[in-house]
Specification:
Length: about 200
């Protein structure tokens, strides 16, 4: 049964197949000629091999050969698979910066090389405590944060998310404008209490 091809990344695939008799495992592969090969001498019913160091965005031909110890014809299966293009590293094209500051709000702007959604953490300390989650997918981003206390230092961090990567900015510090006569300093309004979700593998 099979084979079943799983794309691990742009340079590695996993190939799995099943046999009804105990057989060994061999895969020959290449882009034109079958000039690479993997062999597992163990006799199994379930076979799994990893083809590594492949070229990205490339079609490969493969041939599976599984042979029993004696008395039967080998299983031979041929086919193709294609590796995906590599994923660029997520980075800021323009680092997050505060481009407008008022007594109780501020406008933040940044740009990423990949389409991302975002979160903004902010508060009176580097522990932040408040965050805004924006699921709009874009490369160019602007976000206004509201409910800030006037005349205080505010800490901000921007987080950009793709389906496979997470990018965090450094801690940004700015000071809100002084309140107008007769207004209070106010308090930071908590929009959401919990921390933003992390992707698998982020610490």
């Amino acid at each position: 049964f099979g084979p079943y091809i799983r794309i691990c990344n742009s340079s590695t695939i996993q190939i799995t197949w099943l046999t009804d008799k105990l057989t060994n495992s061999q895969v020959s592969y290449g882009t034109k000629d079958l000039n690479f090969a993997l062999f597992d001498a163990k006799y199994n019913l379930t076979h799994q091999l990893y083809l590594r160091d492949l070229e990205e965005n490339t079609t490969y031909w493969y041939k599976i050969i599984s042979m029993a110890k004696m008395g039967s014809q080998p299983l031979i299966v041929e086919g193709t698979f294609s590796t995906p293009p590599s994923i660029p590293l997520l980075q800021f094209i323009k680092a997050p910066s505060v481009i407008a500051v008022h007594a109780h709000s501020a406008l933040i702007q940044w740009e990423t090389n990949l389409v991302t959604d975002t979160a903004i953490l902010y508060g009176l300390t580097p522990d932040y405590g408040t965050y805004i989650r924006n699921y709009t997918q874009a490369k160019y981003h602007t976000q206004t944060i509201y409910g800030l206390p006037a005349g205080r230092s505010i800490h901000v961090q921007v987080i950009a998310y793709t389906s496979q990567q997470t990018l965090r900015s450094t801690d940004i510090i700015f000071i809100t404008a002084q309140p107008q006569t007769g207004t209070g300093t106010g308090q930071i309004t908590t929009l959401l209490q919990k921390k933003p979700p992390r992707l698998a593998g982020e610490t």
